[in-house]
Amino acid sequence: MRAWMWMVQEALAKGSPAESRIRADTEEAVKSMRAAACSCSCTGRPAARDCRPCMLRHVADRLRDAGYDSALCKSKWTRSPDIPSGEHSYVEVAVQTRSGKSVRVVVELSFRAEFEVARASAGYRALVTALPEVFVGRADRLRGVVKVMCAAAKQCMKDNNMHMGPWRKHKYMQAKWLGTPERGAAAVAAAETPVVAVPSVTVGSPEKQTKFRASMLTFDFGRTALEVA
């Protein structure tokens, strides 16, 4: 497991300044949701912070209010001989680089829990513990982490003479975040929540506010390119 631990830590350490900013704002959104005494919009019951759909919508809205091109996404995949059908919701931020390329940044609020296995070996448990509870990162970086964790889970199952469920397989885990999801209006409509577009970001005091015409996310993963009016 030592080699896998190194690979996981290496992949997690490669985050860009852009991802760090999104992560900080995501963590602030999660913190505010957990502190709020609001009702769940899905059931009308108290403690919306315990409802994953409500938490996802809150984070997507807060990031969008902060100027990010964020949206609630839902992945769906059909059954195959190897894996069962399924679906998974998460938040995605589209980042435009200076070259004009759009880069996906995936926001998963319960990343560590996705890889937990009952009766796991001490080595695999250490790998899971090394994962962040909230993952924020580019799709290519996520792909590397998923590959390593699925390989480690497979080895753990083999060492313990346990059957590996199809929902633990690499193909199934990849489908959660690395397919072609419904994004924005389509995904939110499925959750019965409207999308509110935020065309610009306003910062500063009410007496002295500045409008940014360019997106806060127009940067080359290190420097922000903002056109100030």
- What topology, given as strand order, has the largest sheet? 4-3-2-1-5
Overall SS class: alpha+beta
N-to-C order of helices and strands: HHHEEEHEHHEHEE
Shape: globular
Whole-number count of domains: 1
Helix content: 25-40%
User: Major sheet, described briefly?
Assistant: 5 strands, antiparallel
Beta content? 15-25%
Q: How many distinct beta strands?
A: 7
Mean pLDDT: 78
How far apart lie the N and C ends? 53 Å
Radius of gyration, in Å, reads 19 Å
Q: Which parts are unreliable, with pLDDT below 50 for 5 consecutive residues or more? A: 185-229
**How many helix segments?**
7
Account of the 3D structure:
By secondary structure, the chain is an alpha+beta fold. It has one domain (2-197). The chain is 38% helix and 18% strand. It contains seven helices and seven strands; from the N terminus they run αααβββαβααβαββ. The strands form two sheets. The protein has a five-stranded antiparallel β-sheet. It has a two-stranded antiparallel ribbon with strand order 6-7. Strand 1 and strand 2 form a beta hairpin. Helix 1 packs parallel to helix 4. The protein starts with a helix and ends in a 17-residue tail after the last strand. The relative contact order is 0.17. This is Plant-specific domain TIGR01615 family protein. It comes from Zea mays (Maize).
